[in-house]
Design a protein that fits this description.
By secondary structure, the chain is α+β, with helices and mostly antiparallel strands. The protein folds into two domains: about 100 residues, no CATH class; about 110 residues, 2-Layer Sandwich (CRO Repressor), CATH 3.30.240.20. It has a four-stranded antiparallel beta sheet with strand order 2-1-3-4. Strands 6-5-7 form a three-stranded antiparallel beta sheet, with no helix packed on it. A hairpin with a 2-residue loop joins strand 1 and strand 2. Helix 4 packs antiparallel against helix 5 and helix 5 crosses helix 6. The longest helix is centred in the middle third of the chain and has 24 residues. It is elongated. About 0% of the residues have low confidence.
């Protein structure tokens, strides 16, 4: 095994000084570029802005350790990226259709404690991930939630019922959600494990959800949210 080639590639230890200078220069250029873009370019990572950040990383990385890549071409790349960003943000603010394509729009995922199935499936969200995010906001069941909105930033906005208005809803605590059944043995409030639709169901061997046509249920709870 050629350790020299493995560790240094086509370079040698003498290039370390150049790497240090190049890294400092590109680091400062990245900071300056993000400063020019403003706080929005850093705080919110839409698909478009993620492309910008990745482009910056690619443009900054190569001249740091590739001897054949100079600093001026990399700087030119940064200038063109910033120009593209400025033109695109102008179009976003000027035309709503462009903003919708690049930024997306808020998506309603829950209304009245029930999943809006078509929109939920469209976003390819996993239930485990979604439930975990809600549990971090002290949610125990869907009956506590009036509206849930997936913002364009990827964050979840939850609007809660007052304690006196909390509904029976689908429990999202792992030890309760896993107690799924198809056969109803006693009358009680039950929630569909697929869409969260909740109703009083009497004893029966099988019951189909009128909202989504699935047949797995879990007993509902209606405890208020603890904050």
């Amino acid at each position: 095994m050629n350790w020299q080639e493995l560790l240094w590639g086509d370079l040698d230890a003498s290039f370390i000084d150049d790497i240090a200078i190049r890294t400092v220069v590109m680091f400062l250029i990245v900071l300056l570029a993000l400063k020019i873009l403003g706080k929005r370019g850093v705080k919110q990572l839409s698909v478009f802005e993620l492309v910008i950040i990745i482009s910056f990383g690619s443009a900054a990385g190569d001249p740091m350790f590739y001897k054949e890549v100079g600093l001026l071409p990399a700087l030119a790349v940064f200038v063109f990226i910033i120009i593209c960003y400025k033109i695109t943000t102008f179009l976003v603010f000027k035309f709503a259709a462009v903003e919708k394509v690049l930024e997306g729009e808020p998506i309603y995922l829950i209304e009245d404690g029930v999943f809006l199935i078509e929109k939920f499936n469209k976003e390819h969200l996993g239930y485990d991930e979604f439930f975990a995010e809600m549990r971090q906001q002290s949610v125990a069941h869907l009956g506590q939630i009036d509206i849930a909105i997936l913002e364009i930033s990827g964050e979840m906005s939850l609007y809660f019922y007052e304690d006196n208005d909390v509904l029976f809803g689908l429990p999202i605590l792992p030890n309760l959600f896993t107690k799924q059944i198809c056969e109803i043995t006693e009358e009680a409030h039950y929630s569909c494990t697929y869409c969260g639709f909740t109703e009083i169901i009497g004893a029966k061997p099988l019951h189909t959800c009128p909202n989504c046509k699935h047949t797995k249920w879990v007993q509902s709870i209606n405890c208020p949210r603890i904050t």
